[in-house]
Amino acid sequence: MSGTRLWISVLCVIALAASLAAQDEKNEIGGDIGRIFISDQSIQGATYFDPVIHSGKGLSFGGDYAHRFLITPIFSISGEVPVIYNHDVKLNAGAYGDSVVPVNYKELFVTPAVRANLFPATAVSPWVSFGVGFGRFTQSSMLDYGGTNPGKSTTGSVIQGGVGLDVKAWSRLYIRGEARDFWSDEPDFPLAPTGRSRQHNYFVGVGAFWRF
After folding, report:
1. Which end of the chain has the least Cβ crowding within 10 Å, N or C?
2. Which residues contact 20 (CB under 8 A, 6 or more apart)?
3. Judging by beta carbons within 10 Å of its beta carbon (0-12, 13-18, 19+), is residue 97 exposed, middle or buried?
4. Mean pLDDT in the chain?
5. Predicted local distance difference test score (pLDDT) of residue 74
């Protein structure tokens, strides 16, 4: 047997062994922390100063449970349920005498998804995710610059798409970096119409998970 064939055989055996070991680790649970970025949005028909909704980059917390249904040396397919909670999206638009947006609001996204990992049995595994779920926006009762907020807290549909990288840290503990877009219905801002029905909520975070 030539040296090249020998090395190919060794690599195949290692990949097969790693794949068989991974069969026992079909579940994972973990969490992460990061920020959600929301683009500025112009207010239709506004004649006052600063007719743009500016959204703060709220500190966000996430959790994720996944179960791997298909595992090969090259790829794996998992069902996952990512949950992201943004506890404080600060808003700013208009000026004194023209209060049009609430002081802040909270976001909760729950989006069951399908995730595909490349090289799932190795120490470094990139992945992509796609799912559909719901989002909840809970608004503050007061407007920015004062006054009662006429907007309502709402629940609507969310489409999620994401990419990430899993890196093995120790035993069954992994570090994860990820970026996800939660494309949601817009919050209810009756005094600040944007003419849009949906908005992008870009989450960028890092965390850890345990396979079992």
Report:
1. N
2. none
3. exposed
4. 91
5. 97
